[in-house]
Every structure is written in C-alpha cells, then in structure tokens.
Amino acid sequence: MSILLKSALAVISIAAIIILTSKLKLKAFIALFLVSLFLAFTTLPANIIVSTIKEGFGNTMASIGFLIILGAIIGITLDKTGGTISIAKYILSKTGEHKSATALAITGFITGLPIFCDSGFIILSGLAKSLSSKSKIAMPFMATVLATSLYSVHCLIPPHPGALAAAGLMKVNVGYLILIGIVFAIPGALAAFFWSRRMSERKNYPPANVVEIDTHLTQNSLPSAFFSFLPIIVPLLLITIKSLLNLVDKEGQTLISKIFFFPGEPIFALSIGVVLAMFLIKDKTIESMNSVFGEAIEKAGPILIVTAAGGMYGMVIKATGTGEAIGKLLAGTNLGIVVPFLIAVIMKTAQGSSTVAIITTASFVVPMLSLLGLDSDWGRLLTMLSMGAGSMIVSHANDSYFWVISNFSDIDPATTLKVYSSSTIVMGIVVFACVWITSLIIL
Questions:
Q1: pTM beyond cutoff 0.85
Q2: What is the tens place of the pLDDT at every residue in 286-318?
Q3: 3-state secondary structure of 411
C-alpha cells in the first residue's frame, strides 16, 4: 500500500475520532479502540496487527497507570477531608478579601497540580461564589479565574493523563516536564486572569448570590493548611530535586543524587504524597481508607483505559509510517515547534477533550521529530509543552469542562463562551509564545 493512501486513511481515522466522540457522543475509549482496529486492518500486515495494538495499550498503561491512580488518591483525599478548602482559606488569609480573585487563582493553580480540573472546579465552585458575593466581583470573572488556573496545569503537567501519556509516547523525562511545565503554566494563567477581568468589565455582570460553602465540613473539622499542603508540595519537591540533580550529575554518582534517586522517581514521590494525605483522614479505620481508595480507583479507571487506548492508537499510527512521511513533507517549511501546536489546536477545538487531543497529536508528531529538528531532550520537552498549549484552545460547548463551569457557577452558556472560552484562547497562545521564544534561544 502506498504511503499516500496510508496517510489518507490516517486522516480519515482522526476525522472518525472527532465525529464519534463529539457528534455521536460515543465514549472515547470505544471510539479510539474502533478507529485503531480500522486503521490497523487497513494499513498494517496481518501478522503484526495484534502485537501492535497490545504493545501500544500495554506500554502506555505501564508508564502512566500507577501515577494516575496515586494522583487520584491524593486528590480524592484532599476533597473528602476538606484539605482543598483549608488551602484556599489559608491563601485568602494571606492575600486579604480585597484580593479574593488572586487568592482563588493561586488556590486553583496549587490544588490543580494533583486534582483534575473538573473535580477541582466542583470542589471550589462554592468558594468562588462566596468570594464573588462578599467582594462584589462579577461571578463570570471569578469562575473563569478558578477554571483557567486549574486548566493551565491540567493541560501541561503530569500526573494529568494527557500530559502523562504523551510524555510516555514522546519519551520525555516526567520530572523535567513537571518542573518546566509549571514555569510555562504561570504566564498562561496570568494572561487568562487579566483577559477575563477585561472581558468581565466590558459587561455589567453581577456577583453571585451568596451560597454557604463547606456544607459537609465545619471550620473545626478542617485539617490544618500545613498538613493539607504536604501531599502536594512534598512530591513536587522530591521530583524537582532529582530533576535538578540529574542536570549536574547525569551519572548519579554523588551521595545526594543517590539519596534522592528513588524518592525523586514520580511513582515513589506520589506514593509518599499518598502516605502524607492519609494523615488528613481523622477516622483512620480500614473502612475510611477503603472508601477513599475505592472512589479514587473508580475515578482513575475510565481515565486509565482512555489514555491507554490513546497509546494504542498512537502505536498503530507509528506503525503506518504516516507521521514520518508528513514530517518529510514539512521538513523544509521551517515550521518546527509550530506543527505540534497547530495539530493539537485542531484536535482540541474539533472534539473537545484535551486528553484525546494531546495523545493523538503526540502519536503523529513522534515520527516527525528529527525531520522538524526537534529530536533532542529539549526539543521533545518543548514539543510536549507546545502540544499542551494547543490542547487548551479552544474549550467550548463540546468540552465537558465547559458545562461544569457553566452549571456550577450558574452562568449562562453565552457568557461562559465570551469570558471563559475566549480566555482559553489567550492562555494557549501566550503559553505557546513562551515556548516558541524559548525554542529560538535553546534549539
């Protein structure tokens, strides 16, 4: 079969994923599985179809499975124990009520590191309403500040599933990705903050009607802010320290490198975070802990199979050779880092899921890396971040997160589009601009 026909079938497969998930509302796992089978049977030799599908699914599950489950346990524990609210109240006490929007943004950014953006928004939406009412700040602005601060880290940083699965496909160091991803997420969140404030000021949007928060937790039952921060901060510090040590001691020969070798591995670091999170549970019975573990596994299960199915689709794409062919076509264009960004933008805007967008983009981009001049440690890392930036654009009505924001904030869809959706465009462009400028200096 000619590479031209294979490329056409690959493009058809992408269109099929978009139609199945966004138009027909088929579950992402089933859509990816069916499309992977279609592409494998129409482009690959019969004797490698099964092995290719199994390898793609299994390798992805092996690289991300533990991290997603451990991250889910930390997030669920912070939710159930009131740790997230405790963090929010601590930050608010330091910024003051007059800077409640800033406090909300910082809270969303920090708690969004281990917690998925939709869960984080649901947990903190009551706080956003309360602060909006007390400070008389427009609710669309407060909702967007919270939503985009959570979203900025969700699209760029492991253990969030899209970034984690794509990092496995791209063979990017997870520690470096977390460290550098946080650096690039900050200007994105800031850009969304100022843009949403400007958009809110153009209309006379009202503040929220006050809604009491902490309905299931009293002030006295909240854990301390110090212990609430530990499950988030300690794993990040351990991973960051190991990543920085690897820059100056790649062989790991020094004593300090040996000390942080295992604790700085993402799996071990998040395991330590889980242990620290368990201290937040007041009723430390097997039943209480099993309740947290059970809910976390239920939350992680669908995410695991979707990301593994994305890896399966990626392996089939790689086996067809279409990515390499497209890379040769684009090699002389000098587009470089722009290519993965634009593919991710198209995928995200068309089908809604940032996770599917970044995994599918990674599948196409991996064979192109050397031809685009990105086949180096820094090239792969910046490619990952450019895809993350693209997967932010644009969150609109085909994205479930859009409806979480609209419904839990009591904001009509038209206003959500004007303030929140436009902010995701600005955020993605700003993050990509930072990535592109960095690539001009480093690559």
A1: no
A2: 988 998 899 888 878 887 887 788 778 878 877
A3: coil
